[in-house]
Amino acid sequence: MGGLRAPTAPRLPRWAGHAAPVENGRVPSDPDVLAPRPPSPLTEVVEPALERRGLRLTLKRDDLIHPELPGNKWRKLAPNLRAAVRADSQTLLTFGGAYSNHLRATATAGRLLGLRTIGVVRGDELAHRPLNPSLARCVADGMRLWFVSRATYRRRADPAYHHELRDLFGEVFLVPEGGSNALAVEGCAALGRELRGRTDVVVVPCGTGGTLAGLAAGLGPGQRAIGVSVLRGDFLTAEVRGLQRAAFGGERGDWSLEDRFHCGGYARGTPELEEFAADFEHRHGLPPLDRVYTAKALLATVRLAEEGAFAAGGRVTAVLTG
């Protein structure tokens, strides 16, 4: 079965209890019952590296959209949740690494909406014991974790593998790694529309490219988006193009990718990143910045300004994706 193991009694409970009530055995009709708060606010801050070039820096506080499903997690998941409800599906299955914010967000959404969730996790189960805080949070929110080899995980977009997963788990609604599909890209286009006429350049962190693909499509003429890759390797350009074709039938917007600020790779960091993030939080009165995504995008914003990458006197917005 291409690396799948026969189901055995797991060490963890198969399904944990969910907080949201389920009426007549069905999930709520719309994830908007969770009362998200878009559009997210724009907050201007004074950052010396940008101020010296006459640049205005604003923070797009997408981290404030929802207390448990902030930022692009909400924007990407909500359209998929609505599609799952329309398909009468009560189980979400998705994919991620051991530190995946997307896995954690999917598990949270399942708890809040009364949906079962399954996370296919890259890597051997024993290597992840004890569970790190991200995976432990998934379990606490009711997600069943299913660990697979790296070779099997590479099949995560293969329809034949999806068939195998459905044979194993029954009928499920599949959400891709990072939540990035055409539905998610359309959801993230709202982020760009919220910024029309309010900035010249938008900087956003990128893992799978879905947020950048939608953001760029939603921006207006004369605006551009810069995606900051948090992973090693130059593969996201093709991913963003493919996602835009799937969502809109072709490429949209003015966008580019920066791959110099991954700080060692996904879920890795450097002393420079830690020092920068702690200082930025303190000076601007922000809650702890996510080091996997947001801190790297902010570091890139400041370094790019120092390099003269932004036209003097312009407006730059960094998205705090939560």
Count of β-strands: 10
Tell me the strand percentage band: 15-25%
Distance N terminus to C terminus? 37 Å
Mean pLDDT: 90
What is the H/E string?
A: EHEHEHEHEHHEHEHEHEHHE
Order of the strands making up the biggest sheet: 1-2-10-7-8-9
Largest sheet report: 6 strands, mixed
Structural class: alpha/beta
Subunit organisation of the chains: single chain
Counted by DSSP, the helix tally is: 11
What is the C-alpha radius of gyration, as a whole number of Å?
20 Å
Large-scale geometry: globular
Helicity range? 25-40%
Flag low-confidence runs.
1-24
In words, what does this structure look like?
With 322 residues, the chain is α/β, with parallel strands linked by helices. The protein is built from eleven helices and ten strands. The chain has a six-stranded mixed β-sheet, sandwiched between helices. The longest helix has 16 residues, at 71-86. The protein is globular, with a radius of gyration of 20 Å. Residues 1-24 have low confidence and may be disordered.
